[in-house]
Write a structure and sequence with these properties.
By secondary structure, the protein is an alpha/beta fold. 54% of the residues lie in helices and 10% in strands.
C-alpha cells in the first residue's frame, strides 16, 4: 500500500494515560523509525505530550474515540496538528497482540497508509450545543418517567383522574393533585374553581374520580414525585434558554430547517447540534444518511441479499428525525405524507418511518448546502421543470 505520511503518530487513549507511537522516515521505507512515549492525561501531561509531538513535525496524528477520554487530548492538540479520530470498531487490532504500545503502533501504521477512517468532529460551539441538546433529551426522559410514576401512584390509591384528564400534569391536573396532597375537602365548587376550559363541564365525573382510598402514604409519594417533576422541568427550562442563546448564532440554518414539513425549533436545534451547519463535512447527502444510520444495510453474498437492517449510527439524530416523521405524515396532501403512506402500504409503518426520516435528512442536507428554505427549494424545482416544457401555459 502507498505511504501517505512521512511522519505521523498514533495515540492509544485511556482514562489516566495516553501512549504515543511516532513513525517517521522516507515514504519509500517499509520500516520507518519508531518513537514511543507515555504521558498522563492531566493538563500538565497533555502539554508534555504536545511538546513531544512538536519535535517531529508530524503531518497527521491518529487516535481512537475512547468514551469521552479523547476530548481533552483533542482539545490540546487540535490547534497545531491534523487530527484523525476513528471509531474503535473500524480499527481492530491484530489478534493476539494486545498491549498499549502495540495498540499505539497499530494506530500509527493505519494512519501512515491512510487506512484510519476519519470521524466527524464539529467545532467547539457545535460540540457545546450538542451536549446541551443531549442533556435536554435525558432530562425530558427522566421527567416522563416521573410522570408515569405519578400515574402509578394515583392508580394504586384508587384515583381515576387520568380517565377524564388527558394531561395530568397540566394546570387543571396539577390543581387537583395539590388538593389531594393538602387533604382539602372535595366539593363540586372547589373542583369547579380548580379546573379550566371543558373540564368545568365534567365536575361530577371528576368528583367521583377523586373518591378513592388515597392514604397518607400515597400523599407522601405523590408529593415526592411532584417535587422531582418540577425539578426536571426547571432544569429543562434553563437548558432551553441556554440552547436558544446558541441558536441565535445560527438564525438562517434554523429558519431553513424549521421550514421543512414536520420539523420545529427543537428538531432544528438537534440537527444543527449533531451535524453542524457546514455540509462540506459530508461529500454527499448519501454519506450523511449513512453516517446517521438511516441507509438500508448492504449485506450481499453469492447474489443473495441477506439483510437490509440499518446500522446504529447517530441515535440522537435518528430518533429526532423519526419524531419529525410522525408530524410530517399528518399533513394530508403533502408529498412527504403521500410517500409515507405509499411505503407503509407495501412494507409496513416501521420501514416507512425510516425511509421518510432518510428523505428528511437528505432534504435538510440539500437546503443547508444551498442556503434555501423548503418553499424556495420547491419553487426552484417547479421552475426548472417548467423551463423544460416550453409549451406550458401559465
Amino acid at each position: 500500500m502507498d505511504v501517505l505520511y512521512q511522519s505521523c503518530a498514533g495515540i492509544d487513549v485511556h482514562q489516566a494515560t495516553v501512549v504515543v507511537c511516532i513513525l517517521h522516515g522516507p515514504l519509500t521505507s517499509t520500516r520507518p523509525k519508531r518513537e514511543m512515549a507515555q504521558f498522563d492525561t492531566t493538563t500538565k501531561g497533555l502539554k508534555a505530550c504536545h511538546d513531544f509531538l512538536t519535535q517531529f513535525h508530524l503531518e497527521a496524528v491518529g487516535m481512537e474515540s475512547t468514551g469521552v477520554y479523547w476530548r481533552p487530548v483533542w482539545h490540546e492538540l487540535c490547534d497545531d496538528f491534523e487530527l484523525i479520530l476513528a471509531q474503535p470498531a473500524h480499527m481492530k487490532a491484530i489478534p493476539g497482540q494486545k498491549t498499549d504500545k502495540k495498540d499505539a503502533h497499530w494506530i500509527a501504521q493505519l494512519t501512515r497508509i491512510g487506512l484510519l477512517p476519519r470521524s466527524f468532529v464539529p467545532d467547539e460551539t457545535i460540540q457545546e450545543l450538542r451536549e446541551l441538546t443531549r442533556q435536554r433529551k435525558h432530562y425530558v426522559e427522566s421527567r416522563n418517567r416521573e410522570t408515569n410514576r405519578i400515574h402509578k401512584i394515583l392508580q394504586s390509591g384508587g384515583i381515576k383522574l387520568t380517565t377524564y384528564i388527558e394531561d395530568i400534569m397540566g394546570a387543571s391536573g396539577r390543581n387537583l393533585l395539590q388538593l389531594l396532597i393538602d387533604e382539602t375537602p372535595l366539593t363540586p365548587r372547589m373542583i369547579h374553581q380548580s379546573v379550566y376550559t371543558s373540564l368545568k363541564r365534567k365536575v361530577p365525573q371528576l368528583l367521583e374520580a377523586l373518591d378513592g382510598y388515597f392514604s397518607a402514604h400515597h400523599r407522601f409519594m405523590l408529593g415526592q414525585s411532584l417535587e422531582i417533576y418540577d425539578f426536571y422541568q426547571k432544569q429543562i427550562d434553563c437548558l432551553e434558554e441556554r440552547i436558544n442563546g446558541y441558536l441565535n448564532l445560527y438564525e438562517r440554518p434554523v429558519e431553513i430547517l424549521d421550514s421543512i414539513p414536520g420539523m420545529d425549533l427543537i428538531t432544528a436545534s438537534v440537527i444543527i447540534a449533531e451535524i453542524g451547519v457546514d455540509m462540506s463535512q459530508f461529500p454527499t447527502a448519501g454519506h450523511l444518511a449513512s453516517w446517521a444510520g438511516l441507509c438500508p444495510g448492504n449485506n450481499e453474498s453469492a447474489g443473495k441479499k441477506r439483510s437490509t437492517k440499518i446500522r446504529h449510527g447517530n441515535s440522537y439524530l435518528k430518533r429526532c428525525l423519526c419524531q419529525a416523521v410522525f408530524a410530517a405524515k399528518r399533513q394530508k396532501g403533502s408529498p412527504l405524507a403521500e410517500r409515507y403512506y405509499q411505503i407503509q402500504s407495501r412494507r409496513g409503518p416501521q420501514k416507512a418511518t425510516i425511509a421518510l426520516a432518510h428523505q428528511l435528512l437528505k432534504i435538510a442536507y440539500i437546503l443547508l448546502k444551498d442556503n434555501l428554505t423548503y418553499q424556495e427549494f420547491v419553487l426552484q424545482k417547479r421552475l426548472l421543470e417548467t423551463s423544460q416544457k416550453p409549451n406550458t401555459i401559465f
